[in-house]
Amino acid sequence: MPHDGNAAYGHKSFKRSAGHFTDRITADGRDGWPVEAGRYRLVVSRACPWASRAVISRRLLGLEDALSMAVTDPIQDDRSWRFTLDPDDRDPVLGIRFLAEAYDAREKDAPGGVSVPALVDVPSGQLVTNDYQRITLDFATEWTALHRDGAPDLYPRESRDEIDTVMAEVYQDVNNGVYAAGFATDQKEYEAACAGVFRRLELLSRRLEGQRYLVGDTITEADIRLFTTLVRFDAVYHGHFKCNLWKLAENPVLWAYARDLYQTPGFGDTVDFDHIKRHYHQVHTGINPTGIVPLGPDLSGWRAPHDRERLGGRPFGTGTPPGPVPAAEQVSDPTP
Asked: Which tens digit of pLDDT belongs to each residue from 233-246?
């Protein structure tokens, strides 16, 4: 069953909590957490767009062997994200049944709730950070000693100001905007958020009409952050969150851009539409009290040709695509 707090969505104004635990895992270990192969475990939900950023980044950079990953059940109960996909309903590395146990090991009754992505220190079982805005930037810049050969530079120094600006706009209006619309408590609040989502999407569409990626000619952190919202758009945000002025599939530029990324190794091979649809429709009981999961949309279009190669661009810059998905981390492909 969903945890009680989910019944409140749609009945109280939505405000996203900042990550309470903002320690950083860095090359020099200045916060007490040095980058070290095998020491940390990344806990994610494949349903969650914020966690999916970390899944994509980890795969593109080739951190799979250095940083193990736990995938939670897409349906929480009142004790938080749970490891019911694992034998005995327990994470095999951390030995816990609920992510909340790692939070409690760090700080009892911490504010902000239990969220993913979360990085947990395996030896102590303590949460290190749930700072979803910073985790992937540190993967790109602090974990470089553990990157695979041919890893792309997802946060190139010379482009960071532009990347930061684009990401801030995408976060405010799109990543977070769909939630502000979906969890709005009155008509005016909803209309303002929904209009903001589509205003930004129109601007992004114009930006991407003549260039393959958001910043420069390679994939950056900005593309990862936009993709995790776009890939969920028609499946959940269009209907469930009432962001329905048009579908992603009805915008030729953004639909082609999203398909281009989906078909790029490291993106679509991390997406689990079943987890996504069940999480949103069965957990958010405040706005979908029946818990019914819709049959649509048709997902086969994600594999259709996108013709974005004509814009040039080098997906991985001077690097190479990541290798095959580790067997234990493969998702079923609904888009043959």
From this structure: 999 999 999 999 99
